[in-house]
Specification:
By secondary structure, the chain is mainly beta. Helices cover about 0% and strands about 50% of the residues. The strands form 2 sheets. Strands 2, 4, 5, 6, 9, 10 and 11 form a 7-stranded mixed beta sheet that branches.
Length: about 110
Amino acid sequence: QVQLVESGGGLVQPGGSLRLSCAASGSFFSISVVGWHRQAPGKQRELVATITGGGSTNYADFVKGRFTISRDNAKKMVYLQMNSLKPEDTAVYYCNMWDFWGQGTQVTVSS
């Protein structure tokens, strides 16, 4: 069984930064692809970034150069460093591995 727990969301001003964390449980974490997704009110959930077990990353165009995904396999943690945040980044951010999802963490970018 896999459990994913996100944390680190909150309210931040435009241009600010936040670091999201995803704590995972279960086997095979170190060889699994983990992704961050987000869902804004009234919109479909969209992929933000993914990272393989070996550390290869992929980003959606709308976050390239601003967000960085990373992982610590020993701690079973995945992180999303978000810089230069914009109001349009406001959403619930979810961690995903295989068919499992966390409960999400709210990120609000507003002055």
